[in-house]
Amino acid sequence: MKKKVLTVDDSRTIRNMLLVTLNNAGFETIQAEDGIEGLEILEDANPDVIVTDINMPRLDGFGFIEGVRKNEKFRAIPILVLTTESDAEKKNRARQAGATGWIVKPFDPTKLIDAIERVTA
Amino acid sequence: MDMNEIKEIFFQECEEQLAELESGLLRLNDGDRDPETVNAVFRAVHSIKGGAGAFGLDDLVSFAHVFETTLDCVRSNKLEPTQEVLKVMLKSADVLADLTNVARDGGSVDQARSAQLIRELEALAKGEAPPAASASEPVAPKAAVAKPAAVAKAAPVEPVVNEHGFAPVAFSFDDFGGDEDDAVGDLPAYDIVFKPKSELYTKGNEATLLLRDLSRLGEMSIHCNMDSLPPLDQMDPETAYFSWKVSIKTDKGEDAIRSVFEFAEWDCELDVTAVETGEASDAATDDLPMQPVPFDLSALDGDLDVPLGVVEEEEQIAAAQEAAAETASNVVQMAGNASRAAASEKSVAAAAAQNNAQQASSAAAPTIRVDLDRVDRLINLVGELVINQAMLSQSVIENDSNGVSSINMGLEELQQLTREIQDSVMAIRAQPVKPVFQRMARTVREIADITGKSVRLVTEGENTEVDKTVIDKLAEPLTHMIRNAVDHGLEMPEKRLAAGKSAEGTVKLTAKHRSGRIVIELSDDGAGINREKVRQKAIDNDLIAADANLSDEEIDNLIFHAGFSTADKVSDLSGRGVGMDVVKRSIQALGGRINISSKPGHGSVFTMSLPLTLAVLDGMVVTVAGQTLVVPLTAIVETLQPDAAAIHSFGATQRLISIRNSFCPLVDVGRILNFRATQANPVEGVALLVESEGGGQRALMVDAIQGQRQVVIKSLEANYTHVPGIAAATILGDGRVALILDVDAVVSASRGQSLQLESSLAAVG
To answer: Is the ipTM here above 0.85?
Structure first.
């Protein structure tokens, strides 16, 4: 069965790149544009793994991760953070919010798939 | 979808983000201190940087990076967004826009300018005042954000099931070749002790997955230490009890091993030690007090191609152990159903509340993106529908003189519906003028910089909507007018202060709807038009006679004449070779009018009135020499039946008509368009009093008025060729093509510039 990935990113460009990369790698992809939408569709999407941006309008990545972790069903789901900020401080904040790992932008399809495979069974 | 399409999307998005950036910065400039505004500005730059990075647009990335860093200082309240700071940022937004354009269309940017801004931004980020502009020292473009070393590519996992049963399973990625041991034996070996904390699991990491990842680095043996596992009744399912000891042989190095645990770094104890070759493999089986655990790869990765028969017996025995491991390693949902339900309900409610609050703050209506071609196709189709409906009405009326009421009523309803559909479709293409107005802000900044004037742009009615085709064509004339307003209209600061005005000049741009048209007003509080100077210039350029008696209004309108410029010297701005005459022509080409009114010492106001759409037009259908013509209704002031007594001859061929005690030139449309060789008798026709661009009135003679209707404009240029005196064509209800009169062209032709027109129309036939 295909693994389902929920991506949350406000940038149309990145959303499209995620979609193409993940579909090519054989994942099923569901997309949300910000944290609020991500939480809204979480239950229905029922993903195996989540990839989220940090800087987003309405609800940012930190808030989104916290929201996901509060949901009993998804509190142990792997969540990867897309980040351009590779410094330890930002990573740490994402970790404290409950992120499983991160993918450092610029967006690299190989890195993305590697990271997803690292956290999913 | 391929990369090029995504790139196209990226540039579209950039445009939106740049607009967002600019409007956000301008709001900050106006004193808005809402953190969300700063966030939105930050996000815009951040998004551009993110996308640019993905496409390897290094120049864009490095500039965006510096810009973002400075914005981050504002966001974290380390930098106060003063006017000075915002000035640098607005300029940076301009450079970012340039860089984006260059990335898309090629060309080059002003390196010195962007280097200077990078320095200014960096200085701001460090808390210094922006350094004085000195574009001499070139700064090497910053290297693109360093790409972190790629994670070692995972080799395909080939499970090796050996005969040991419970014994440690060795992982090998080589084939079952006999020389495998020798090869592996030479590789460096490492002992790894990995003890996850509970947090590792709550963050969605998985010890088994990490170990699987590790196994891809080389041949390894693994032991699970379950010593701290308490009896089942004391066990907390969400606590980590296990630790693992792994011996691995790999040539990938210690860094590769550590990078496997990158995500878990904070949430585990990890100890990696290099061991002498030869000891490692023994250590796993002999030296350790720990109980070996079978490591069943098939449970971890369903895609792996494991020969089932071999695994089966192992699996059965392993099942119990595995279950225990799963229990501990997965975060198991053992919480009571009730509390779970309560918790999730609560979180949903919280999310909903947050959602509502957020939605209230950003009340953006949901939108969809549609290819413009599709909308255009729809508009064309609706145009056809309108024509078809008119034809249907006409044929019903012609064939059914008795007027069966039900058919007529149905037709009327159809007509109404058609009209509504048309309006709705037009509304789809209608867009606010905001993007164009925003572009003007940049123009103002640039010209203010060049001229050394201090200018503030005030915009009003940015959300006034108008057809996209009109918006697209509006930018150019507007840019030129803004340039003119700042360059010629506003005075230098000293001069303003001397005149008792504030040093900062104001240029105001407003848009509003007025009787089915959009009116755009551009006003400045500068010196106004220097009529003496304009008049002198016009005389010098042979535009008017030295002794001509002109009203103030007429003098003001002289600036719209071709080749007219009041600039004393050819400056950077007026040197572009575009005069107000070009502005006027482009506005007219849009079916618009432009007027100027000026008060010496108080500034000038340019008023443009444009149709809301270029697709339909309300027109008066008239007959001229047997031809059917459409006269745009907006041009017509009134219609009248000339009376023989009101017609006066003037000169050899000219005639005037007296209307309420003032004289107005009478223009025979049929004669001007060369439909007939001699002038028609005015008394037999109808006069349409029209207002032309110069503000003067003319009476256009036509033979009869057929009626008034909305017509769908069909471009003559696109389907045939440009015909002087004719603006476009349309299809009438009876299926015939009617030409739409270009009133201004006809009026100016009547002023004696008709030779060219006549000959060309004669050629058209």
So the answer is: no
Together in a domain, B207 and B287: yes
Q: Does the CB of A20 have a partner CB in chain B at under 8 Å? A: yes
* A62-121 residues touching B, CB cutoff 8 A: 67, 69-73, 75-79, 84, 86, 92, 95, 98-102, 104-108, 110-111, 114-115, 117-121
Our CA-based measurement puts residue B64 at a distance from the nearest CA of chain A, in whole angstroms, of: 12
Closest partner residue to B147 (CB to CB) among A14, A56, A106 is: A106
CATH 3.40.1360.10 fits A4-119, yes or no: no
Q: What is the pLDDT of residues B220-269, one digit of tens each?
A: 888 888 877 788 887 777 777 888 888 888 777 777 777 777 777 777 78
Domain carrying residue B41:
3-125
CATH number at residue B595: 3.30.565.10
Contact A119 B54 (CB under 8 A): no
Residues 38-57 of A with CB under 8 A from B: 39-40, 53, 55-57
Instruction: Write the DSSP symbol of residue A58.
Output: S
Quick one: three-class SS letters along B697-729? EEEEEECEEEEEEEEECECHHHHCCCCCCEEEE
CB A67 within 8 A of CB A56: no
Chain B: nearest CA to A30, how far in angstroms? 16
Q: What digits encode the pLDDT tens for the residues B418-440?
A: 888 888 887 888 888 888 888 88
Same domain, B453 and B495: yes
Count of domains observed in chain B: 5
The CA distance from B383 to B548, in Å, is 49
For the record, the structure tokens of B670 come out as 């049929």
If asked whether residues B392 and B487 sit together in one domain, one would say: no
